[in-house]
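Schema walk-through. Below, the input block comes first and the output block second. Nothing else is stored per chain. Lengths vary across the set, and this one has 372 residues.
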Amino acid sequence: MTAAARTGAAETGPRVTDHRGGVWSIAVPIPDNPLGHTLVHLLETGRGPVLVDTGWDDPDAWDTLTAGITACGFDVTDLHGVLITHHHPDHHGLSARVREASGAWIAMHAADAAVVRRTRETEPGRWLDHLIAKLTAAGAPDSHLAPLRQVRAKGPVRDLPGQRAALPDRPIEPGALLDLPGRRLRAVWTPGHTPGHVCLHLEEEHPAQRPGHGRLFSGDHLLPGISPHIGLYEDPDDATPADPLGDYLASLERVARLAPAEVLPAHQHAFTDAAGRVRELLAHHEERLAGLRALLAVPRTPWQLAEAMEWNRPWERIPYASRTIAVAEAEAHLRRLVRLGLAEAVPGAPGAVGASGAAGASGPEPVTYRAV
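--- output ---
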């Protein structure tokens, strides 16, 4: 194997990096996405290689993944297992195809497995009805709701992409050492980005003897230059309010205490000083919450709050689908403010009855919030 193939310096072929100690990363492209790629990690074990995530379900992504596995010195048929950090399609998308090609098992935390199962089993129109109701409660304008209503009015909704996602074969148990001969890999439950997101702590001496405790496959939980999206993942039949941002902040502190020598994330690049990056993210969200509380000096719906928030581009330039995601993030921050006693649904406002402190109640009228 050439040095160019190992480090990704070659002009053609997959971008593969040898992180030493039987750990590799393969940059698998994400179609039409500014992130560019998912870093799929390959971990050598006594029973054969195991992947950490798989990449987007796309022909070019599949070709890149298989070529990358070859560049690491293996064939896709050699794969023993697949560890999924979380259920998003740029991580879990190719899992079914990997399993079909190799017979490898797929493992995932139970909370994300439940999301996959619910998505597969729920009639697509039910999801669309739920989305319309949530956006209506968030105060979305008719211009945003009209396309969704038009699709729903046309009759039965076609299968959604998430309904093809692979169900896992086994759970990833929080705190457990995974059954990987010759390796010490421990699961760390880090909810927030998704309810069942996990990081994987390789409790082995760093091959370059860097100070710290092993290496951490961090998925999307801890990235060197991006604050991951914190949205809402809920059961249409379960109105119990969750606090995903609170979960994420607590999970960040849990990861900082691990003090890994190096972090191997699913996007961007490997980095050190996990504790320093955690401090940056905690400060970012503290500043974000303070800014949102200031915005709520004027009562706003979640949609109005999202419009007023700072994003990576002006609101009018945010694409249609991304606005739905942005509103979900605004609601996640609202829920944290409500839990902290810093915001509340406006008493007597339409939709406020029965909100129980949760942004985006399921009533047909928008819910307005204010700072307290």
